[in-house]
Amino acid sequence: MKLRRLSLQNFRQFRDEEIEFARSETNNVTVIHGSNGSGKTTLLNAFTWLLYEDVDFDTRPDRLASEGAMAGASPGDKVSVSVTLEFTHDGAEYTATRTAIYEKQSPTDFDGTLEDVTLAVEYDDGSGPTQLNNPGNVLSQIIPERLSELFFFDGEDIDELAGIDNQDRIQEAIQNIMGLTILERATRHLDTVAGRFESQVQESASEELRELIDEKQSIASDIKELERKKEDKERAIDRVRTEISDIEQKLERLDESAQLQENRREYREQKEKLEADVEEINSQIKATITEHGFIPLAMPLIRETADEIDQLREEGVIPSELSDDFLDSLLEAERCICGRDLEPDTGPYSQVSSLRGEVASDGVEQGSLRIVGHLRQFSDGHAAFFDEVDALIERRQEKHEEIDELVELIDEISTELQGLEGTTPEGESISDLEAERERKEEEKDQLIGDKGGIDEKISTREEEIEQLEDAISDQRDEREETRLAQRRQQAAEQVKAEISSTFETLKDRVRNWSNQVVNETFGEIASKDLEAEITDDFELKIWQSVHDDRVEVDKSTGERQIASLAFVGSLVKIARKRYEDDSSTEYFTGGIYPLVMDSPFGALDKDHRREVSRILPELATQVVVFATDSQWEGPVEEEMRDIAGKQYWLDFDEGDGGDSSPQTQIKADQIVTAGD
User: Fold this and answer.
1) SS3 of 652, please?
2) Which of 195, 261, 420, 493 could lock 430 by a disulfide, CB 3.0 to 4.6 Å apart?
3) Longest Cα separation, the chain
4) pTM score
């Protein structure tokens, strides 16, 4: 999709205006200058109203009709409001127009009553213009509404993507750009279908089967409630961890507490390494017990067997030579030394008889000696087993003692910090900050414990579900409608399981892909020692390299905005790559989309403005930027002046409250605005 021209008729303060967008590969940026309140946000909303009939205005969101047009109309007159967008897509020309008709009700009515809204899309692939019958679906297929906030956004709000508790928005954006929401909806739908079939089984089933299904549904409901509680705990844990990190970074910035905080960080890193060592030792102990743990249990029997063989040798029961006389005695008695019957014409009798006449250089006695030797080796293994386990336990104890020492040092630092009197520029004392950090640590530990308890309950209930499902599967109901509903339910559950597995695999693959592109884009904008990451939990985090280690940084509004811009830019790149791959891909073929941004520079310092300005043209094949004069001046203008294919200025006249109404004109020549 490439924008050509936007035309507005009586849309808010725009009476009859149009913008032609830059379209060349080297000059792909359109810049629209305007002071605050001049209409930049209105232009952004013009796109979303045209495409999806959706607007997001802070003031009077229902008033779309131009105040000037309504003022000039008489009661009963109809005022037409329209937005037209001309664009190209897949080699064809499109003209989309959404029109709303308002009727003026009284001389003082400047809002009007909405009478009708229509949408028309004209398509021309070179064979002549054609009116499309289903214009809404056509636009939705070209740029789905689920993607709208990724490509038409307010730069002053975009930083929220990198804020606390926004994992869901990150995950949803990734799923949207890759079309994975189709799979997610499919699993939800199949879950509903399976539940409906289960209800049908329940209605026609035997009393016993009905009771089993009732119990399963009750437990499934319990699990859903536990999952909701678990998610709440996880969000709370992430929130508290972020709050602790914020406090610690404040302490690092104060001269009085910086060294203590640095020491605490180092002690904590050492403690975490020791804890990892303890886990490794535990794994080694487990592996040793798994491989050799049977020896202590078998030792009494092993010793008893070895002693019995020795005794048999001493008593002559096991002879030193395997003589023919001895073999004849066994055959005559029809009983082997192992106790087996030796009946004539049987396999065992023939085997013993075949030994007659052979010279055994290594007789039974030697064999028995070898057996006793092997058994004695178990005694040696028994001692080695305990020696190895004892050594591992001793190492683990040493690690625990080192951990205890570090815990004491960390506690001493906390006590020392609570005795300091320094304050932050905001007036927060070091002692109060440390006391608050301690409270947050206790809160975090409590939340982690609560989450562990919930996990245990979920695991127990899931085991109960599995047992019930087995019991339900074992039930035999002779009624045809019950058997049919059971088969349908099982089929729906199997398909759901397959789709869920595919969904999780693709989601993780796309997260890794997005993470790579986000970090590349972020690295081109931010400081060299900073990197962005989409974590396994779909959080957008910023890390800093400190002493060969990564530390999560306290994200300022500007840094959050950069990270969020990098994230959106990465999704645009991914969509374009999938589109240009020219290969069959799962669920979503991608697309070429413009990027329309209102005030993307607002919270950035000059250095970051320069880097963002440099990278913006590379985020998409076509970029539209709204900026105030103060945002544009300096590094932004220096970087974008030569690549801006089109520039417009919004000339806003607020009217006099009498004969003239607020109105904005779009001019291609630079004007002097009245400030930001």
Assistant:
1) strand
2) 420
3) 137
4) 0.56
